[in-house]
C-alpha cells in the first residue's frame, strides 16, 4: 500500500506515487507507465466490441475503447486512420516513420529505391514505430541508408562491409536479410566482420592499410565463399582472426628490424621461418599473399610442414576402428561420424553436409559419395550405416520432418553443428584431427594421391603434399586427368 499526500498525487490507475504523464483520464492523473501500456493495448472493447486501441478501463479493470472509456482525446491518425499514439501533429508514429524513411531511401528520383521497397515495408510494419523513429535520428544511420539508396554503395553484403560503424551496419544488414533484400549471411561471418572493424581500428596505423587489403581481398573473400557453401562455424572464424593477428605480428617484427614489407629481404624471411613455430603458420598465408600481390619483393617463402600433432599410429587407428564397429554402448551416430573420420579421413564440417543422396546402394554394395565418385563402404561398417539411416535422430521434432540431411540438427533445415560433432567425438575418446591425418596417410600408402583426392573429395594438391611428407609409394604415378 502506498500513502498519498496532496503534494504527490498517485496515478489514478495503478495507485503508485510515480512520475505522472500530465494527462488526466476518467480515473484521474495517469502515470507514464500506465499511459505507455494503455497506448499499446489493442483489443476488442468489452462494452461495444469495437476492435482497436483499448486504453480505457471500466470499474472492474476490463478494457474499453477510446469513445467508451470517456477519454476525451482523439487518437485517430488523420492520414491513415489508425488509432495510435500521435507522434506529430495529427499523424501516428507509423506515418511519421514511413515519411522519414521514404526520404532516406530516395534513390534520387523522388521515389524509394525499388530494391529497398521490401526493406521499407518490413521496417514500417514494426509494432512500435517510436523505436524506429528514434533509430533514424541517430547520426550514423541516415548516411548508411542514403549510401545504399542512391547506389553509392552496392546493395550487397560486400557493399555493406565497406560502411561504418559496424554496429549500425550490422543492424541494417539484419533488417535487409529479414526483409529478403539480401540473402542470409553466415552468423560467424558477420561476427568476424564486426571483430575485424574494431581490430583494424586498433592496429598500428602504419600497417593498417595493407592488413585491411589482405583482410578484405583475401580473408573475407575466402570466408564468403565458405559461407556460401554452408555454415562455417566458430573454428574458421577463430582461425581467420588468428591469421590476421599473426600477419600484424609479422609487420611489427619487421619494424624491429627496421624493415617494411617492401624492403623485406630473403634473410628476414629465413630468420623468421627459423624462429619459434608459433607465429609462422598464421603468418604464412599473409606472406604468400604479399608475394602474389607484389606487396613484397620476389622472395622465396618456405613451405611450412604441417604443424598438427603427430597422427595416431596405424595400430591405434585399427584398434579404434575395431572398437567403433563392435562397441554398442556408443551412440550409433557418434560411431558413424567417427568411422567417417577414421576410415575415410573426412572433415567434420564436410560430414555435417552429407545427405541421404550421398549414400548410394545397389543391393549388396552400398557406397558413399565423398568426392567425385562413390567410395564403397566396407563391411561391417555398411550395416551400421544402414541401421543409422533408419534411425536418424532429430527427425521427430516439428522442425525437421522431411530432412534428407544425414546428421540433422535441432534447428530447422540445419545439420548438426560441426563443433557439436567435434565435442561428441572427443567425449567418445576419438582423436579427430590426428585420427583423420592417420587415415589419410594410411590411404595414401595404398593408392596414388590423385586417386585418393578424387574419391575422398580432397584437393589433389593436399593429398600430394601429405604423400610427399609421408614418402609415398606412388611418387611416379602419372596423374592423368585427375589433377589439373
Ligand atoms: Zn499508473
Ligand atoms: Zn467501446
Ligand atoms: Zn497514420
Outline the fold blueprint:
Blueprint lengths: L19 E6 L2 E4 H7 L3 E3 L6 E3 L2 E2 L5 E2 L1 H4 L16 E3 L2 E2 H12 L12 H8 L4 H8 L4 H9 L7 H5 L4 H13 L8 H16 L2 H25 L3 H24 L9 H9 L5 H13 L21 H13 L5 H13 L3 H5 L6 E4 L2 E4 L6 E2 L4 H9 L28 H10 L4 H15 L2 H8 L3 H11 L14
Antiparallel strand pairs: 1-2, 3-4, 5-6, 7-8, 9-10, 10-11
One zinc ion (ZN) binds next to α1.
Structure overview:
The protein has 484 residues and is mainly α. It has four domains: 20-90, no CATH class; 92-172; 187-292, no CATH class; 320-470, Intergrase catalytic core (hpI Integrase, Chain A, Orthogonal Bundle), CATH 1.10.443. The chain has helices at residues 32-38, 66-69, 93-104, 117-124, 129-136, 141-149, 157-161, 166-178, 187-202, 205-229, 233-256, 266-274, 280-292, 314-326, 332-344, 348-352, 381-389, 418-427, 432-446, 449-456, 460-470, and strands spanning 20-25, 28-31, 42-44, 51-53, 56-57, 63-64, 86-88, 91-92, 359-362, 365-368, 375-376. It has a three-stranded antiparallel beta sheet, with no helix packed on it. Strands 1-2 form a two-stranded antiparallel ribbon. It has a two-stranded antiparallel sheet with strand order 3-4. Helix 10 (205-229) runs antiparallel to helix 11. It is extended and about 90 Å long. It starts with 19 loop residues before the first strand and ends in a 14-residue tail after the last helix. The model is unreliable at 1-5 and 472-484 (pLDDT under 50).
